[in-house]
Amino acid sequence: MSTIFPGNYVAHLNAYREQGVEALPGIEFYRIVGALVLNPDNDSNLSGGSLSAATYNLKVLSPDMRQDDKPRLDKAFEIPANSVVYRTSISAPGVKANAAADTIKIKALGANAPGNTGSEITLTAGSDKFYPANGATSPMLSLLNGTAISTSAATAVQVITSAANTAEQNPSVGADRLSPSAILVEVCYYRPAAAPDIEDAHVPFATEAGSGT
Q1: Could you tell me which CATH number the domain at 30-64+73-188 has?
Q2: Predicted TM-score of the model (pTM)
Q3: CA 124/CA 147 separation, integer angstroms
Q4: How many CA atoms within 13 Å lie on the side-chain side of 74?
């Protein structure tokens, strides 16, 4: 855990290692980015790099870029229990829809937002069937007035693809190039920081009898 009080700086956060920052006293902030990778070359699980209309889990990808040797495997993209989500965003670089106006949506997280819709951000394909390069972002849900989303249990981050035609041979979403394309989802949340330890209070060491001069 890094501490970033006024005057301090922190490096790019490592989502795979679940690295956060204590940017405000007593609160740890996290930014996790997960992916659903579409690779038409070798991903047999995605029918040649295509997705039908369905709900899909995402992964926090391993930092090991080699495909033939990954000592650290991809991890499930989950938000821990008792976290407060205040921002979500979604993008789909290199992904082409089956038709204009097809959508990819982040499935709702938690149950504290009005209508449970605070995290349901939708990305809509344009007339060229590609999704906007700058993606889609949620409004900044309030940290103070209760509209941020609390998770009562570990919550998987998922996306929902929707299209008029959902047949396998005419998929709703697919990789449109011979290199990996991906649906990317960012979730920003915070959690209570740990209670203070001995060093925080500068508790003096005990003095043994007879040690004085």
Answers
A1: 2.60.120
A2: 0.75
A3: 25
A4: 15
Question: 106 near 116, Cβ under 8 Å?
Answer: no
Burial call 114-133: b when 16+ CB within 10 Å, e when fewer = eeeebbbbebebeeebbbee
**Per-residue model confidence (pLDDT) at position 76:** 92
Residue 213 scores a pLDDT above 70: no
Beta-strand pair 27-38/149-150: unpaired
Confidence of residue 112 (pLDDT cuts 50, 70, 90): very low
Most confident of the following: 54-63, 64-73, 171-180: 54-63
Q: How many CA atoms are closer than 13 Å to the CA of 31, on its beta-carbon side?
A: 10
**Any idea how long the chain is?**
213
Return d(Cα 147, Cα 118) in angstroms, integer: 8
More confident residue, 150 or 78: 78
Coil, strand, or helix at residue 201? helix
Query: How big is the chain by its Cα radius of gyration, in Å?
Result: 22
CB atoms within 10 A of CB 47: 15
Structure letter (DSSP) for residue 64: -
Amino acid at 178: L
Q: Which residue has the tokens 């349901």?
A: 120
Q: Where are the domains of the chain?
A: 30-64+73-188
